[in-house]
Fold Heme peroxidase.
Amino acid sequence: MSFLSGLFSKSDEVDSKIVQYLLGLQDPIPNRHITLRFKLVDLFKVFLTPKLPVDDSQLELEHYITALTQLPLNTPEEKKLLSILERLLVTQLWSDISKPPAMIAGDIYRSSDGSGYNRLIQSLGKANSRYSLTSRIQYPIKLSVLPKSEDIFDKIMVQGGDFVEHPSGISSMLFYLAIIITHDLFHTSFADPNINLTSSYLDLTPLYGSNDQEQKSIRTLKGGLLKPDTFADSRILLQPPGVSALVILFSRNHNFIAQTLLEKNELGRFSVTNPNDPEQLKKQDEDLFQTARLINCGFYINVILHNYLRTILGLDRTNSKWFVDPTVPYNKRGQLEPLPSGIGNIVSLEFNYIYRWHAATSKDDSKFVEDEFKTIFGDDWENITIDEFKEKMGVWGRSIPKDPSKWKFNHIERGSDNRFKDTDIAKEIINGTKKVSGAFGANRIPKVFRPIELLGIESARVLGLSSLNDFRRSLNLKPYESFMEMNPDPLIAKKLEELYGSIENVELYPGLMTEKTKPDMLGSAIALPFTISRAILSDAVNLVRNDRYYTNDFSPRNLTTWGWNEVQSDPDDLASGGILHKLILRHLPNIYKENSVLALYPFTIPSQTKKSLQGRGGDLWKKYNYDEPCL
Ligand code: HEM
Ligand SMILES: [Ca+2]
């Protein structure tokens, strides 16, 4: 009943002529009904600037209904007015309740493959279905004049000269999380590049798998637990070791959650009456596993909102407690349409390219990848063809153990309990926090990525992706009119012009990687290329808001009260609301000091964190320990 709020306030002087105009009536109410006229005037004002929430103790609904019964009905205009007021009342009452219902009792668990995340279209965004497309083609690329992919990479994409450090001291750890996010959202099928083998949701599929079989391979099927230090997506093993270490923190966190859920057993939710009944134990395992997954995903999404996005925007340099919260319910409010939530998602091919951030790879990690590629692809890895690349990736995939609890990375051994040593995992996380990432922009991608980038450029052509400018149009961004506008570095602009001839012919992916980058400033501390920077914010808001498990179904009822409280962010704590330190300190005990910046702000290198905290004024920065933990 939002529009009723303030309906009878006496204080506002409103021009009744506006109302008459709106109604299309000359004189809606004769002068003798002056009181009622002012009520109507208030009504329309409230439609434009309603006050929420409605204070129903003021009995406004009842007064409104009374007003309707008292309305004179002598003229056709008065009758029309009644029908409008009645319509407003019914419309508001009808739209107070969401349709279709946003929540269904008992339907609270995530499926293994992302099906059922949208209840009406069960398959929306599930694993093993088609990508969507974001960008409408308005100015088709002239294919016949496109440069060779090798020329594009070698002239404007490959790192030239020295490694350039990221201007705002973003650590490699931020990109380890980004790699988990991108593996959560994208897994293009080698057989058909239109198909995405993972779910289009931030549901921790790198840990939990993308189908029943993968999920089963990581579960003990007892007490909701995962096999020790195990995750499902073998592609993570190809990444720098800090990525596996970070996924393992989430794996450990799952088991901690499942054990605590059983200990607390809120409302007897996980009880069994007969511990010898296999059916009851199976149900208990399933309930514990699924509830633990919901809570673990709650940690993950809050790491994304409170560590990742805050660092990307540079908010940790300020004392502001503000963060972007895409989960807020926005109901219809006057002229403001409701903003739906929990409606499901399908990631697009364009966003797959938006997220290829190979330029950010640190110097050490490039070296790691180089050694790895030599092992997988042979000494001539730099000149490998696309077909050889796919074939050797296939061979590598078949060479790793079927049981993911036997996987190893960076030659780190498992102990007799099959867990990795805390110090081995901590070492990778600490290294990731110390290593500064690479700066974005033209000529910044390490050469080791050459085969992957060529594959990317050529796949995009086969898939018929739009130009950079058409993608910008689709995001309501002004298309570039010249190469100098796209990248004001005259050398890069010249090379782009030599390659593409016309600005409208610049392909999406090479364009995204070579356009100008945003300055390091509040709002863009990650200093991404312009179009990517804008696109990922829209993407983040969509991914979180469209997932019903992070919006309509994110509640203490589904996560348990303990689980719900556990994932909350506290903006007044030492991490300024960050969450990731909870995982680091809990699952790597006795290694970090409680006030270590390496735990509290792992997404910037320690020297940058110190600068940011000093910049916030006062003695705040003195509360922290800046030393590298001893192992
Ligand atoms: C640092 C080490 C990295 C390595 C070794 C690596 C390796 C690879 C490989 C081999 C592919 C090709 C897979 C294919 O086409 O099927 C790929 C694609 C991709 N990479 Fe990376 N990458 C790294 C870093 C990153 C980073 C930091 C990001 C972004 C945060 C990223 C995002 C992507 C995306 C979105 C794809 C496309 C995935 C798909 O379509 O399945 N990568 N990467
Ligand atoms: Ca997913």
User: Anything to note?
Assistant: The chain has 25 helices and two strands. The beta strands are 129-130, 195-196.
